[in-house]
Structure formats: structure tokens, C-alpha cells
Design goal:
132 residues, alpha+beta, 4-stranded antiparallel β-sheet, 2 helices, 23% helix, elongated
């Protein structure tokens, strides 16, 4: 069976605000198939002005437990919301994300997020911590 990629309708450039961007990232995250034991928080990082406006956000993930309410390691997903200077402001913003351990930039429309990516980042960090 073919896996359906879930996405959300993104706001237009003219209706975009930093807070609206964060809310929409949360909305996107809610479509991801991730176990409820994962907790995260999202935050706005910076605005970058180049050939387009780029708004940078981060969602930081962890797996707290009763015995260890502060996770040993976390995994971050970085989001960029792009508003083109050359397209009409009625066009939806473009959204991309990447994992902290990767330079590969993904688009929510083209790639379904996988919980395993978060697990791999955390497992690799714990292995590194234990080696030190």
C-alpha cells in the first residue's frame, strides 16, 4: 500500500506572521505519525533577509520518562519558512525542514516525517556520551 504524505494548507505570504508560522509548524507536526511519549517544544530562532525572507524555527524533541523526566539527549528538527520577493503575496509560503544531524533539506509535501529519524539522533548522541 502506498503511504500518504500528510501536509497542511500553508498561509499566504501576506497573512504570514512569526507566530502564525510557529502555529503552522505545530499543525504540521500534529500530522506526523509519532508516538505520544515523544514531547517537543518549538521556537522561533531568527529572520534572515536575502533574495527572500527566511524564518527559522526549531522543534526540540525528547523522550522523558517517570524515572528520567529530563531526557539524556534530545533531537532537533529545524524548519525554514520562505517568502519569495518575486512571487505575489497571495501565494502560500514555502516550508522546508532538516534534522540536526543532516544537511538534507526536506519538503513536507514530498517526504513523510519518520519517528525513526528522531530515535537515531538520540541513540547516536547517547552512544557518544557513553564513550566520553
Amino acid at each position: 500500500t502506498k503511504h500518504v504524505i500528510k501536509n497542511i494548507p500553508w498561509t499566504t505570504a501576506k497573512n504570514f506572521t512569526v507566530e502564525r508560522g510557529r502555529q503552522q509548524i505545530e499543525e504540521l507536526i500534529s500530522t506526523w505519525d509519532i508516538h505520544e511519549s515523544w514531547l517537543h517544544h518549538s521556537e522561533f530562532l531568527e529572520e534572515e533577509l536575502k533574495d527572500s525572507k527566511r524564518y527559522h524555527y526549531r522543534a526540540c524533541w525528547g523522550l522523558p520518562t517517570r524515572r528520567k523526566p529530563i531526557p539524556r539527549a534530545t533531537a532537533s528538527v529545524y524548519f525554514i519558512i520562505v517568502i519569495s520577493k518575486f512571487k505575489p503575496d497571495t501565494v502560500p509560503v514555502e516550508v522546508f525542514y532538516r534534522l540536526e544531524s543532516s544537511r538534507l533539506i526536506r519538503s513536507p509535501e514530498q517526504c513523510q516525517f519518520r519517528e525513526k529519524w528522531l530515535q537515531d539522533i538520540i541513540e547516536n548522541k547517547i552512544v557518544c556520551i557513553e564513550r566520553l
